[in-house]
Amino acid sequence: MTKTSPLSKLYLALVFAFLYAPMIVMMVFSFNGSESTYIFEGFSLQWYEKLFQDKVTMDALKNTIVLAVSSAAIATVLGTLAAVGINSMRNKHIKSSVMTVTNIPMMNPEIVTGISMMLLFVFAGVMFNKRDVLGFWTILIAHVTFQLPYVILSVLPKLKQTDNRIYEAAQDLGCPPIQAFFKVVFPAILPGIISGAIMAFTLSLDDFIISYFTNGPDFQTLPIHIFSMTKKRVKPDMYALSTLIFVAMFVLLILMNVAQSRSDKKQRRKQKEES
Question: In the prediction, which pLDDT does 68 show?
Fold first, then answer.
């Protein structure tokens, strides 16, 4: 068993400090008694109270959550179906071409994706003689588009680990193809589906550039709202909001890891029982 050197421990500590120190400072100053961003003048919950009283910010948060949940749900369904289709392809050249096309939204710079989708939506609006085409539906389509590759790449490895003979055996025993899929394949790839859904949700929650180019005046997400506030002085109520989002995502990550570890333990038990 190799021992970790003090230098490597120090390096690891510095990396974690660099990553998490800004978040800790932000969380501390969200409880500050004054508007100062560098002098802590006593503990107070006033910024959390003002946050929940700010109707514009709460509407932007609601829009962001609705968009993230809707786009993640659609992208998860479409991405899972696409992953099943890609996995069942026999021609290696076609499969490789499809995977290359699938990876384009991931490799493409966000600003290019945002501008190109905005031009596409505006062009479609001109064709159908519709003004003010940008809004919730356009930003929803844009988010689903860049989320799909992440869902596909989360589900595909689980599909490759699944023994296709079990699916064929279920059909031989009288299960229709769809029922056999949900009885045999779906439980095996469920961890990948959940990982893809959470990834899609967090990507939508965090996105600014693509949302900025594809949203309309009647629908504003939280990142766009915060960006508009940077032209003025940002108050600590935004620290409070960021703290709540960070804690929520941290809890979600813990629950996901716990569920993943339980799924791995069940899989190991099954393998031991079968052996």
Answer: 93
Of 179, 172, 163, 149, give the one whose Cα is nearest residue 86. Answer: 149
Closest to 205 measured CA to CA, from 222, 192, 229: 222
The closest alpha carbon to 198, from 124, 249, 131, belongs to 249
What is the DSSP secondary structure assignment for residue 230, as one 8-state letter? Answer: T
Residue among 131, 143, 120 at smallest CA distance from 212: 143
* Bridge partners (DSSP) listed for residue 43: 32
Q: Cβ-count burial of 197 within 10 angstroms (0-12 exposed, 13-18 middle, 19+ buried)? A: buried
CB 48 within 8 A of CB 257: no
pTM: 0.81
Run of H or E including 94: helix 92-107
Q: Kindly report the three-state secondary structure assignment for every residue of 244-258.
A: HHHHHHHHHHHHHHH
Query: And the tokens for 19?
Result: 């990553």
Q: Give the relative orientation of helices 236-274 and 222-229 as an angle to the nearest 10 degrees.
A: 150
Total Cβ atoms within 10 A of residue 219: 21
3-state secondary structure (DSSP) of residue 186? helix
CB atoms within 10 A of CB 137: 13
Of the chain, the end-to-end C-alpha distance in Å amounts to 29
* pLDDT tens-digit map of 145-160: 999 999 999 999 888 8
